[in-house]
Design brief:
Blueprint: H1 2-12, H2 16-25, H3 27-32, H4 48-55, H5 58-79, H6 81-91, E1 99-107, H7 115-137, H8 149-156, E2 161-168, E3 171-178, H9 188-199, E4 205-207, H10 215-223, E5 227-228, H11 240-256, H12 258-269, H13 281-316, H14 327-338
């Protein structure tokens, strides 16, 4: 019931009180939270959602995400078992497979954390205004004393959580969440190691921002046969065709990185990542974890529908590239096939 209520709240974008009211009025939502029969009274009070967020720790939600991913991978392996065997026989051994996309962003908090630091910063700003007014009112016109307001603003400004995620096959997994500033480029080796634990092999290529492309990370990836996106360190080849293919590969790598940007945009625009409504650290971690859990659930639930749509298009004789075309061209191609 606790997890189901939090999923409903995140999916519908409701407050705690609105979530309870929707559950009280909806029979499908009551069935979703495992109630035996429909009831007209609320199954719990709105304040219980706070206890639910405290009860479901970040570690528990992370374990749930890993279990969900493993079950999805087992289903895919079972469906493509014969094809994988043929590929292994042709390749003559295990090789790196897949693409790993990593990036980091910030999750703004609606309530500044810690609260006393925010109050102290507000008091500092009001004190500076008083000093400015007193200096302006002085008859002899004294100079304003130095208050180091830029340094003080940087020290007292409360920022939101910073988090790093990895995207593989349109599934996003939170890799690190912290209230302190950190260099996400130092986490690339760990992220690739987690990819190997989940999938059983290294990725064929890693797609990341410039901050990840340090010399140490490049050498580490090169030793393991992983191609890191971005401009290579060596000089461009003199051959025109090779140089053209090199530039084409760089553009394609930048296009692949748009997937993680899209995940951040989706989480902030359609879910609660753009404004985390939690005060405590542990509650904020739970809210962000539930956001990505709901996004992955939506993606997995949409997979059968997408496969059915692709099958219908293939029966109609429409190219599979129709899913990659703009909407106007796709509509024209579909109308031409069904005519």
């Amino acid at each position: 019931m606790a997890l189901g209520a939090l999923i409903i709240k995140e999916k519908l974008g409701l407050s705690d009180m609105e979530t309870v009211e929707q559950i009280k009025e909806g029979s499908y939502l009551q069935y979703f939270i495992d109630l035996e029969s429909f009831q007209y009274e609320a199954p719990f009070d709105a304040s219980m959602l706070t206890h639910f967020r405290k009860r479901l720790k970040h570690a528990d939600l992370t374990a749930l995400q890993e279990e969900l991913l493993q079950r999805h991978l087992e289903e895919d392996r079972r469906k493509a078992k014969g094809k994988e065997q043929d590929d292994d026989d042709a390749d003559g051994g295990s090789t790196n497979k897949g693409k790993l996309i990593v990036d980091a962003t910030c999750a703004p908090a609606d309530i500044a954390y810690p609260t006393d630091i925010g109050l102290l910063n507000e008091a500092r700003e009001k004190t500076e205004k008083i000093i400015d007014e007193l200096c302006a009112m002085h008859p002899e016109g004294i100079n304003r004393p130095r208050t180091y307001h830029r340094t003080a603003r940087k020290d007292f400004l409360a920022v939101g959580m910073k988090l790093s995620i990895s995207v593989v096959d349109d599934l996003s997994m939170p890799e690190r969440m912290s209230w302190n500033a950190y260099n996400e480029g130092c986490d690339l080796v760990r992220d690739i190691g987690r990819y190997r634990e989940r999938y059983g092999h290294y990725p064929e290529s890693g797609h990341a921002d410039k901050i990840y492309r340090t010399l140490a990370n490049r050498m580490w990836c090169k030793d393991r046969g992983i191609r890191l996106s971005g401009v290579p360190l060596e000089r461009p080849p003199k051959d025109i065709e090779k140089n053209r293919a090199r530039r084409r590969q760089i553009r394609e790598d930048e296009g692949i990185r748009n997937a993680v940007k899209g995940k951040f945009s989706q989480a902030k625009r359609w879910y609660g990542l753009g404004r985390v409504m939690a005060r405590l650290v542990e509650s904020s971690l739970s809210v962000v974890s539930i956001t990505f859990l709901v996004m992955n659930l939506d993606r997995l639930l949409a997979s059968p529908i997408l496969r059915l749509f692709a099958r219908l298009l293939s029966e109609l004789g429409v190219s599979e590239n129709v899913l990659l075309w703009p909407s106007s061209r796709a509509a024209i191609e579909c109308r031409w096939a069904m005519a």
